[in-house]
TrEMBL record:
Residues 218-472 form the Peptidase S8/S53 domain. It comes from Streptomyces lincolnensis. GO terms for molecular function: serine-type endopeptidase activity. Keywords: Hydrolase, Protease, Serine protease. PANTHER family: CEREVISIN-RELATED, PEPTIDASE S8. This is Serine protease. Belongs to the peptidase S8 family.
Amino acid sequence: MTEQAQPAQNPGASGPGPDGTGFTYRGAEQELIVVARPEARLRAQAEGVRSAAGADVSALNMFLGDEQLALEPLFGSEERLQQSAGQQGTEDAPDLALFYRVRGGEDRAQELRARIAALPGVDTAYVKPPAVPATLGQVGEDTRRLKEGAPATPDFTGRQGYLRPAPEGIDAHWAWQRPGGTGHGVTVIDVEGAWQLGHEDLAAKLAGVVVGTPLTDVAWRNHGTAVIGVISGDQGGHGVTGIVPEAVTAAASFHGIGTAAAIHAAADRLAPGDIVLIELHRPGPRFDHEERDDQRGYIALEWWPDDFAAIRHATARGILVVAAAGNGGESLDDGVYERRPDEFPQWWRGPFNPSNPSSGSVLVGAGAPPPGTHGRDHGPDRSRLEFSNYGARVDAQGWGREVTTTGGTWDRPGDLQGGPEEIAWYTDTFSGTSSASPVVVGALAALQGMLRAAGRPPMSPERAREVLRATGSPQQDAPGRPASQRIGSRPDIRAAVTRLLPEAVGSGRAERYWDELLPYPRELPPRLRLFVSGAWRNLNHPSPEIRQAVQTAFAGGRPDVRVWFSDDEIVGLVITG
């Protein structure tokens, strides 16, 4: 068990893969998607395709038979989907019953696309490049540690700066002291490729795989394991602690069914207020959908029509969907994302333009952690990391570097703790919009838990996006990457609570104060204590300026120190005299 020394990096530098050399995830496949004409009312069956409207589909069936292909509904039975859409009143959403996936011929997808798109009953067809995790890789020396018979895993929570108070972190520590703030009653499903479900730090609330077949590649497992660890790593004095350790987490693999079907199936297993996390991105139109080790031009999944439809289905049901904005270094405001590809349906509008219909998902960018985290510097705190996509559509940011969590480093044992057994791997260098997204999910799950505990309805997708945009620690400028390249604010759970639960915040005028320079027990932080509304309220880690201002106000004999508080914690302070 060692801490690995990493090579120095330029602030905000990208460089995915081992030592910045690039890497490839194995096992992901292209998807050939067919969009039917509404008037054809296609119905895919084991013996072929028929038309509920009586249209002639013989040419389509002949083509499928000759090429040994099968057409299957992407989101399930057409009749069930149409009934469900009518019951939910999602008239503004794409018709899910029109989407099909072609089975077979994966190595000839582009050739088949053009031919099937020209057949009667088919509106259009398009090929989606393989989806991969939106992470970056850093690999140090291989470490060896035998789990059985070796010393117990140390407590790594002191390295999880994203748990700390704002602006450094999202203030998970504060949330844990509030009813529901550990995520109790909230379920999160992570959509990606694979996980190490037997990890020693994920036993308490992990529900397992609910859809799809996990990929077998260790790089995929490390990625999924890292994501789950950020959200709900077990509490217990060893390893890491998740932002919401009481939330139930589950896994949905897109392998074998495609990304849109996985998103749709995950959402159908959740209740309003629960969360779907999409930990994938894919090559966009900037480089003609080219698969690249450097991930340049990779974008969020919702740009593709079927993924957009699946996400819209979820958010229309009240499910929060959080998605990685992608590591392509792209401005999502660029006109290239407004131009409709010829093979996309006519109704498609660029989803990254806020003026167009929205999927309703929360898009997450990657921000720099505080300089000096783990001895490294990636630029000013909360500045956009160079690889992160950005634009008006991006709602919030999370830590995009130096995230301490469960799992290994790309396809190797963990750089924080390795060894021959995956169940005890930990990393200090989980990164990308992949590491940023579960940080935002954790903040939202804590808020949903507190709302449930207060007997309030959970946030809707629209409300969640509004709260993330209205609160939080603001994005900072960096050389060459100004805050106008929007990735949004880092969530601040405490600030969001004052917006969501204003009745949980009291106020009053301070009657006396106590400047506790040396707190007892010593584990407590330095505090400024103010007696307000019949009780002592605490301001932890007060700045010297606040201390001096309070002392001056009371020394003057007529203090006017107005305090806002939640339980015994001070959340706001105004000194006027």
